[in-house]
Amino acid sequence: MLQQTQVTTVLPYYERWMARFPTLKALAAADEQELLSYWQGLGYYSRCRNLHEAAKRVVESGLPTRSDDWRVLPGIGAYTAAAIASISAGEPVAAVDGNVERVYARFAASQEPKARLSTAARKWSESHMRLSTCEPAQWNQALMELGARICSPRNPDCRACPLANACQGKGDPHRFPAKKPSRTVVEISYTVWVPAREGRWGVRRVPPGGWWAGLWEFPRRAEESALHQEFVGASPRGLGEVRHQVTHHRLTLRAFLVEEALWPNDLDWLDTDELKRRAMPAPQRKIANLALRKVVAANGLEPLT
Length: 305
Ligand code: SF4
Description:
binds iron/sulfur cluster; alpha+beta
């Protein structure tokens, strides 16, 4: 949950999750749709699917101990594998997150690009770990904490730093690590049609392979003409516009209500309570609320949460 997401955002999700899926067995046995509904709002849904798949494999084959074996599990990269193996089994492998990369880059005055920085930081950390009297778990946690609390991105406190005597970058720490070239923001527009019929809402499952795979959404297309081909005879009415950011993609979703058409037969028609329970991407949930306000607010129905 904490990948790409702040602790304060994660905490309520984590608590709800652990109350519902307190063991690996409970997680492995869970239905994917239910898991996605608990993850709803955190984004980056592949993390949820990977966690589920990893739990199933671990329940079947047992918990790995070595970092190389952890890395085989879906969603577990070099950092997570090293953190788990060093903390739980004492394996002398370096857990290199952004904090450790920054400490290394400043300590060694390294301008290496991001792609090579992680490997260099890992070798540096492991070579010192082996010379130290610390346990690997302590070493890794100390280095990450040093980066988070003392060698921070904006205000490194070199006077309080235990590495200051040997640090080559302390004269001008802000030069390190080398700045990443900024990514160009890509604008993407979609048209979304909200099918509404006799108090029910038409949704589809997002196919595998893209953003939001496995979640449910109102029909969404890059070209409005594609929706007109699918919903013959539709007269869409404007609901509003929703904006959403996914990594460096800025999405604009223009939403319309469709109450009459020759309905395509791949829609799943849900009543409002069912719609509330389905896992939907955040922008689609906002669109659902726009539609609810327009169509059923007069009946006193609550917006979706
Ligand atoms: S001396 Fe300063 S720049 Fe060097 S590692 Fe410590 S806090 Fe970072």
